[in-house]
Design brief:
Elements: H1 2-83, H2 100-112, H3 127-130, E1 133-134, E2 139-140, H4 142-149, E3 164-169, H5 175-187, H6 190-193, E4 196-200, H7 204-213, E5 225-228, H8 233-237, E6 249-254, E7 257-263, H9 270-285
Parallel strand pairs: 3-4, 4-5
Antiparallel strand pairs: 1-2, 3-6, 6-7
Helix pairs in contact: 1-2
Length: about 290
């Protein structure tokens, strides 16, 4: 009996300890799995919250962008108004691309809540571009042509430095626009000329005649990119018909937005204004 007690006790104890160790190991394993699951859940929650936050931010951006732009542009226009010194009736300020009258007009329009595009607003896309007519071919720009012309819609969409300079005029056979286009083509740097787009209300036939007159009808002497907007659909979309009278408007467009905008562009100073507007756009992106 004694022998049985001596030989049996260690075995029983060993088996009990083994079961206890196994249970502890199993418990630790379950706790570890639960911990990992909790960590994963926390990570998923963070990711979901981040994604939801991004979506909400985008939605808020779309809904509140105009109000935010209105506030920023109003502050900027006030700053410009205080800092501007006008050269003369036909000149832009020395350090800016708008003269005092243009700045004050923008402030007044912003105060009144005039329904028109301001700097920072999304640039209209789609049919207003696709319907533009190429004078040389009488064909519309179409979707493919639009993607080639408009930087953020084409292959260079990821390049924030890509932009185009658009000068438009809703007045038919406008001497101001024709003179401005000629001056810009002769005065601007090559890199700016390559981005220059002229949009007018003349028929393709009228534009062909005008291009030929300026020697811009051949590939060797190609002038600015000119498009006909006879129904003024593009100009309506870009609110370039004027609130009081028709006049020329300058747009610097990039990254899907109206980066810089000058209404009542003056024929005598356009060659000075365009480089300044582009420089201001580039400086703002630094």
């Amino acid at each position: 009996m004694g022998s049985n007690r001596i030989s049996g006790s260690p075995v029983s104890t060993s088996l009990g300890m083994g079961k206890s160790i196994n249970k502890q190991a199993e418990l630790r394993k379950k706790m570890e799995l639960a911990k990992r699951k909790q960590q994963q859940q926390s990570t998923d929650d963070v990711n979901n919250n981040t994604a939801n936050s991004n979506i909400q931010q985008q939605q808020l951006s779309d809904q509140e962008m105009k109000e935010e732009n209105d506030r920023k542009r109003f502050e900027e226009l006030l700053r410009q108004s205080k800092a501007s010194v006008v050269w003369n009736d036909y000149a832009s300020t020395e350090d800016d691309y708008k003269n005092q009258e243009q700045i004050e007009e923008e402030i007044e329009a912003s105060r009144k809540g005039v329904e028109r595009l301001f700097e920072g607003d999304p640039a209209p896309e789609g049919t207003c571009w696709e319907g533009l007519v190429i004078p040389q071919t009488d064909a519309t720009l179409g979707k493919v042509g639009t993607e080639r012309l408009v930087p953020w819609l084409g292959k260079t969409a990821s390049d924030d430095d890509e932009y185009i300079v658009v000068v438009c005029d809703p007045r038919p056979d406008s001497p101001d626009l024709q003179t401005t286009a000629q001056n810009l083509w002769s005065d601007l740097r090559v890199d700016l000329r390559q981005r220059l787009v002229i949009i007018n209300a003349d028929s393709p036939a009228q534009n062909r005649k005008w291009l030929k007159k300026n020697g811009w009808s051949t590939s060797e002497t190609r002038g600015p990119m000119v498009y006909s907007d006879t129904e003024r659909e593009w100009m309506k979309a870009y609110t370039a018909l004027g609130d009081k009278r028709w006049s020329m408007t300058l747009f610097v467009l990039a990254s899907g937005r109206v980066q810089k905008l000058v209404r009542d562009l003056d024929v005598y100073t356009a060659s000075q204004v365009v480089p300044k507007a582009v420089a201001a756009f580039k400086e703002a992106k630094l």
